[in-house]
Design a protein that fits this description.
CATH topology: Bromodomain-like
CATH architecture: Up-down Bundle
Strand content: under 5%
Strand order of the largest sheet: 1-2
Helix content: 55-70%
CATH superfamily: DsbB-like
Distance between the termini: 40 Å
């Protein structure tokens, strides 16, 4: 598999790495939840959404770049993925700060469950304390780093990979178009 990856253009390599990384993080999060019994908080769920977005975008970029041979679209997709991973890193940074009590988390920080409007009023519902796990307590740590901390590291790395690949591929595409321009020897 790695041999086949080395023969692909750099931007395709970055998009495949992003897709595999996001898929791995999502699988790991769901395994921790379903088999480890660690219910996600609201910020954990938001971080998953960023990786679902990154996974979908990177797969789309691989398809347009490799199957359809639209190189500029693949380059643009890698740049867009870089922005998604920058957002993911920022969200993970915020969550890690909440877990380490550097700043307060959102008031609505809970894993949430079904909303029961039963006999109470809307005011009662709004005054109710969150029922899910708190965003300020890390459910799991390895070597002192929480899942949000590891997500920060991975997301920052994916940002760098996607941005670097997009910038290098765009530079190469500009050079190639200058060489192929009419009137050039």
């Amino acid at each position: 598999m790695l041999g086949a990856l080395k023969n692909r253009p750099l931007v395709d390599q970055a998009l495949i790495i992003a897709a595999l990384s996001s898929a791995s993080l999502l699988i790991g999060a769901h395994l921790f939840e379903h088999f480890g019994g660690l219910a996600p908080c609201a910020l954990c769920l938001d971080q998953r959404e960023a990786h679902w977005t990154g996974l979908a975008m990177s797969m789309a970029g691989v398809i347009v770049g490799a199957a359809l041979k639209w190189r500029r679209a693949a380059i643009a997709t890698a740049g867009a993925c870089a922005l998604v991973y920058l957002f993911s890193a920022g969200l993970a940074f915020y969550h890690a700060g909440v877990e380490n009590h550097f700043w307060p988390g959102p008031v609505t920080c809970s894993g949430g469950g079904p909303v029961d409007l039963g006999e109470g009023s809307l005011t009662d519902l709004l005054n109710e304390k969150p029922t899910g796990p708190s965003c300020s307590e890390a459910a799991w740590r390895f070597l002192g780093v929480s899942m949000a901390g590891y997500n920060l590291l991975v997301s920052a790395g994916l940002f760098a990979v996607c941005l670097g690949a997009a910038l290098l591929a765009a530079r190469d595409a500009r050079r190639q178009s200058r060489r192929n321009a009419p009137g050039k020897p």
